[in-house]
Amino acid sequence: MGREEEMSTTSCKDIPNLLSSFVDTFVDFSVSGLFLPPPPPSPPPLPTRLPSPPRLVAVGDLHGDLEKSKQALRLAGLIDAHDRYIGGSATVVQVGDVLDRGGEELKILYFLEKLKREAARSGGRIVTMHGNHEIMNVEGDFRFATESGVEEFRVWWEWFRAGNKIKSLCQGLEKPKDPMKGVPSSFRGVRKEFHDGFRARVAALRPNGPIATRFLSENVTVLVVGDSIFVHGGLLPEHSSYGLEKINEEVRDWVKGLTGQLSPEYCRSADGLLWLRKFSRSKVPQCDCSALEHVLATVPGVKRMVMGHSIQRVGINGACDDKAIRIDVGLSKGCGDGLPEVLEISRNFGLRILTEDPLYQNKGNATMVDVGKEQGLGLLLGQQGGPKQVEVQA
């Protein structure tokens, strides 16, 4: 066989895979409006512990509000006016609750995936975490999904189904699996016009569903970065003794459909990692500092716990000498419409709140609130009347 003929044969064999890649790109763009850059050749493993980076940024709950999410990321200097990643070697942690209460849940998942790939090229890293609302949705609990959120998934399914039909016509490609297999055609208590959207949401987010596998299986449940531990709700001694790596692996396997329909108990219980409010109560004195210090002592090298889950009306604040940092500011329009704020931990400046709160504004520009050893986050914001919180019970 001549060289030209061999190259021609090889090119023909590649056509099915090229078609599949083109269809996936077309579907992604139709759903999200984004062209995703290629993933890194060797994706990093699911992290549980990361070394302390020069700059660490923590972002709270996003709840389906894409524009407010972008505002927070711009505030942190992580994206430019064209939504491109410019955060350099920073490590970014988003503490969960992308889903529910808003209508752009999928768009945020796609946008974060785009930034993850761009950050990897720049030597940075973006880590996304599970919140209780991710777990609820994978379990099929849609009590906090909005009409626009249900519609977004219905539109996703139309494009995804069209893409699968195109792939099924191509010889040389394995017939795509039907994600709707076993999904009910109707739902009690749900108006008929929403049934298609509910079916799409179930299909996409259930264990081993296309969206759950592609995006949510890359989330972690607990994460240590340097001397900070991140968790959506809170950590107890029994969780750390059970094993942080084990928790991440078990939740990932469940999202991938390897272990049944229900999530692990530590994801569902009131004192679980994603639901606990023991260290994020509405008043600082209600934070159990003794219990917190005991928990932190069970994770070597950790000085503080950073949490979302409970909305802090005064913005990001700390309790127990800044050993408990609460960063859910109710950002989404569907969940308080709070002013964007993010937490920055850096070698040069320590802990800082990056905020658009006019209380700390100078001539209308976003500013930084420095936190020194004598004056911690809790004390600083306490001067404005004490940390307050709107508890949104899910």
Automatic annotation (TrEMBL):
PANTHER family in alphabetical order: SHEWANELLA-LIKE PROTEIN PHOSPHATASE 2
UniProt domain Calcineurin-like phosphoesterase: residue ranges: 55-310
CC per GO annotation: cytosol
MF term (GO), any: phosphatase activity
Organism listed in the record: Phaseolus vulgaris (Kidney bean)
The protein's name: Calcineurin-like phosphoesterase domain-containing protein
InterPro entries tied to this protein: Calcineurin-like_PHP, Metallo-depent_PP-like
